[in-house]
Amino acid sequence: MAVNVARRKELYQIMPEGVIATRRWLMDNHLSRHAIDNLVKSNQLESISKGIYVRNATKITWQSVAYSLQSILNTDLIIGGLTALEMQGLSHYLSFSENKIVHLYGNDLIPEWVANLALNINFVRHTTNSLFGKSLEKNEIGSDKKKRTHSFTIERDWDNSSEKLILSSPERAYLEVLLDVPQKVTFEHADQLMQGLTTLSPRSLQKVLEGCQNVKVKRLFFWFADRNNYVWLSKINRESITLGSGNRMIVKGGKLDNKYKITVPEWL
Q1: Does this model's pTM top 0.70?
Q2: pLDDT of 89-106, one tens digit each?
Q3: In the chain, count of helices (H) and strands (E)?
Q4: pLDDT digits (tens, 9 = 90+) for 181-205
Q5: Helix, strand, coil in percent for the chain, rounding step 5
Q6: CA-CA distance, 216 to 242, in Å (whole number)?
Q7: Of 59, 25, 48, which Cα lies nearest the Cα of 117?
């Protein structure tokens, strides 16, 4: 079936290859139901789930999925933790898993169709409530649509277009990693990561530590930071950062660190 050239050109402009969109989003971008159906019949669009479409399924990557979740579906999910550190060249830890893990942080759910994609990718969602509380993300009303804003994040290019991915700043990403110590991230791994964080921003660290509500994470951060004694550490105003009271048992059978009142592996 012939496809209107202007319509196809419009599709290519609004939807890069590999990007996944909903029928509602396509209609909001001036494509009628009839036009969408014709684009599917002519293989310009592929239906991967009910009401979910992609332009060229062979171009789907984890980055295009993350972009779709952030900018098309407008979820609050950002790329964080280990994945954000990897994207910024701050993680040299090698994973021997066949499937890549992409860590997403937010309170919205990952749609079911993501798990059905033919990718060797495991998208893992983490909530932010236990780290920053419920007020970290907010919505702002723009000139034409609602836009989410995210605290302690940066934007990065992910393809040859001007489209951006939202990911945690290094300062926030490391705190997200510490949230999983020692259950999913070992002390050794967290220590290796800290050894690479030589250029953290004291200003950003101050804000993210003051915004963090998790006492365990903040104590662990300072414990690992003290081991490396970076220049940026001396510029942190610790008096405005609440570390709570009482001991915290982080690892069983560990040794109590008297300064931060946390149990850590004795070999460290």
Answers
A1: yes
A2: 998 665 555 568 999 999
A3: 11, 12
A4: 999 999 999 999 999 999 999 999 9
A5: 40, 20, 45
A6: 11
A7: 48
